[in-house]
Design brief:
four-stranded parallel sheet, about 20% strand, alpha/beta, single chain, 2 domains, 7 helices, Rossmann fold, globular, 12 strands, six-stranded mixed sheet
């Protein structure tokens, strides 16, 4: 069974939506593993188990700095699998502690050497399967069914807008929404935002197949364009937003300029309703 996170409409006046333009998102923070990455991780783990490539008691290993690691730890624990994670030095102690609480073995390494260390480790541990989210573009198929669900629930879309790490969620969801739905990236122009990148500047090595031509349109966002708020009003109440989703909302505003009656979906990696589901912005 596929995940079915709640899809909500963003109605906050701060976006100054006009002329029938509408923007939707999903509450991915309510997923069991707490993020959008659950679609890919759950789908891949189930597929590996169902095809016999992975057995109960076997294991998965991966390099990850955040939400993929958390999703892997969750679904490996749930399926009685070993989980070995390589994370960069500097990742928050809270994340590392959370991973270990869920039974994962965690190695912390310098970012510049982390893939080299991981490759050496994997050669001496053939019993583990490398999850390989970074270079395996076929993993975006796990987002296709969610794109179809979005289209069925809210009707025809003009575009899907999202930040870019591997690009799997943005491209996979837009493909699932059907022909004619644009995949639009929200990228930082010349500053750093955790979990996302500028694909023309920040490269992931020789095997990185993502580039500026991978998307129908790119919006390069400056710090001044970011939404100056930590929460935003939706049809079910306020949701918390971080820097990466603020980047996406800034791209959405740019996309809507000069357009009318456009409906888009904005990818939030881990959005969830604030406590008590407040329906009004705080004064």
């Amino acid at each position: 069974m596929n995940l079915r996170p709640r899809i909500v409409e963003i109605i906050d006046p701060i976006l100054q939506l006009k002329a029938g333009n509408r923007i939707f998102t999903s509450l991915e923070g309510e997923n069991p593993g707490g993020s959008m990455k659950d679609h890919m991780v759950r789908g891949e783990i189930e597929e590996l188990l169902n095809t016999g490539r992975l057995q109960k008691g076997g294991g998965v290993a991966e390099v990850s700095a955040g939400s993929t690691a958390v999703s892997l730890a969750h679904y490996c624990q749930r399926n009685d699998l070993q989980c070995v994670l390589f994370v960069p030095n500097g990742i928050s102690p809270e994340i590392v502690a959370n991973l270990r609480r869920q039974g994962a073995t965690v190695y912390q390494e310098e970012l510049a050497q982390i893939y080299q260390v991981f490759d050496v480790f994997m050669k001496s541990h053939p019993e583990l399967i490398a999850f390989n989210q970074l270079y395996d573009v076929s993993k975006r198929r796990h987002y296709n069914s969610f794109g179809s669900l979005i289209q069925n629930e809210i009707g025809p879309l003009a575009a899907v807008i999202g930040g870019v790490g591997t690009g799997h969620s943005l491209l996979g969801i837009s493909e699932g929404c059907g022909a004619g739905v644009q995949a639009i990236s929200a990228e930082p122009a010349s500053f750093k935002v955790s979990g996302v990148r500028n694909v023309a500047i920040d490269r992931y090595g020789d095997q990185d197949s993502l580039n500026a031509q991978s998307f129908d349109q790119r919006f390069l966002i400056t710090p001044e364009e970011l939404t100056a708020t930590e929460s935003i009003l939706t049809s079910v109440g306020e949701i918390q937003i971080g820097a990466s989703f603020s980047l996406v909302l800034a791209a959405a505003r740019a996309y809507f300029k000069g357009k009318t009656h456009q409906k888009i979906f904005a990818i939030s990696a881990s959005g969830k309703l604030l406590a008590a589901g407040r329906s009004q912005k705080a004064a």
